[in-house]
Amino acid sequence: MVTVTRDPERYRVMPGEGYDGVVQVSAGGFYGSGVLLNGGRAVLTSAHVLEGADTVTVRMDTPAGRINVPASQYALHPLFDADNGNGDLALVWLGEPAPASAERSTLYRYDDDVGSDITLVGYGLPGDGLTGYVESGSVAPTKHLAENRFDTTGDALKEALGGGIAWDPLPGSQLIIDFDDGSSENDALGVLMGLRDTGRGGAEGLIAPGDSGGPAFIDGDVAGVATYTASLSRNGQSPDINDVQDSSFGEIASFQRVSYYQQWIDRSLRKADPNTPASPEEVETTLLEEDDGTSLVYFLLEFNGERDDPKQWLSVDYATRDGSATAGEDYIAVADTLILYPGETQAAIAVEVIGDDIAEPDEAFYLDVFNPQGGSFGEGVAQLTAVRTIIDDDGWMA
Questions:
Q1: Where do the Peptidase S1 domain residues begin and end (predicted)?
Q2: 205, 14 Cβ separation under 8 angstroms
Q3: Are residues 209 and 316 both part of a single domain?
């Protein structure tokens, strides 16, 4: 007999330092967490944080201070299913670009995430594993950090628990962690499915209220998005240290697997940008620098070959590189993988140019494209490179 208590509003990250690109998302009097994506115009979070909200605001703690940015729109994943924790993702588009000082994040696109160490960041309630989180209202939400490890997937956990659980995660779509205190008695996944691992010591944490939508990072890339916690028992054995669902030792948490949902994320971001060039003729190779904020310059990649399979994904890796322009001063560096999904033959890469009112000469930077998968650049060609020039408008004088 398996008994399950789940509450998708309860999240937890234990105290620590935060990342500048992790944000608080407020919607309809409730709040969760999220992460600013490359391009500085959109935030990835959980669907259940935003469902039914009329207005959404994103709060950022930047090196220059705390700011609030109203959202211009948001979108929930079309397969969002709160009962089973499926498709619990949302994208929030900012009403104005994020400041250049806010850290942007890249998606973790690989399926080797199970077994990987992760860093959890969010605005959840503080507390400890012995007594759980501190109740809302007694402390102000602040950014916290913790460590853990992706132990298994939601469907593997369901299979191990057997038929007594009314929960149906999409295969491969959810990543599961547990909150260990170093003992075998409170090793949740050890008790529930024989995955013996007593944890990360004092650095280990779990999600709590307010961390919903917060990222789990692998090597700095977003691999998971916080969804729910659960206190599970099996055959009369409960690993939960206090048998109360409060993000205490012995509980588990689930994250949406970003690699599983990357197609929806990528295509939603592309569709929402009205300035993306649709043909090579529309590509601008120069950009007039603004006096402040960031503006976007685009690189357009096209595939002119034949797919072996219409369902095949094609990809290239890319990275910006300094010329006379300097990353962090003149533009925001990016390095990622561009994927052309079924039905796509082209996609644009946007790079943010940082505005200032300092007189300086025109400057240039490069985008290198390499490691093609599913096609090639031509015989003997390992890398493609394009250049963009930032035109200064602040009265440079020789």
A1: 1-270
A2: yes
A3: no
Q: What is the CATH number of the domain that holds 326?
A: 2.60.40.2030
Residue in 177, 195, 315, 298 with CA at minimum distance from that of residue 247: 177
Q: What distance in Å separates the CA atoms of residue 143 and residue 22, rounded to the nearest whole number? A: 8
- The two tokens of residue 187 are 């090793």
Q: pTM for this structure?
A: 0.93
Pair 191, 241: CB distance under 8 Å? no
Q: Which pLDDT band, with edges at 50, 70 and 90, does 142 fall under?
A: confident
In the 3-class helix/strand/coil scheme, how is 230-280 assigned residue by residue? Answer: EEEEECCECCCCCCCCCCCCCCEEEEEEHHHHHHHHHHHHHHHCCCCCCCH
Phi-psi region of 104 (alpha: psi -120 to 50; beta: other; left: phi over 0): beta
**Number of domains composing the chain:** 2
Cα dist from 387 to 283, 322, 344, 351, whole Å: 12, 10, 24, 12
The model's pLDDT over 143-186, given as tens digits with 9 standing for 90+, comes to 889 999 999 999 999 999 986 678 899 999 999 999 999 999 99
Are 57 and 26 in contact by the 8 Å Cβ rule? The answer is: yes
pLDDT in tens, 41-80: 999 999 999 999 999 999 998 887 889 999 999 999 999 9
Domain span at residue 225?
2-265
Whether residues 309 and 380 fall in one domain: yes
Rounded Cα distance, 394 and 295, in Å: 16
Which residue in this structure is represented by tokens 């669902």?
Answer: 245
Q: What is the C-alpha to C-alpha distance for residues 62 and 242, in angstroms, rounded to an integer?
A: 37
Q: Is it the case that residue 235 has pLDDT exceeding 70?
A: yes
DSSP classification of residue 204: B
Lookup: tokens for 235: 């055959």
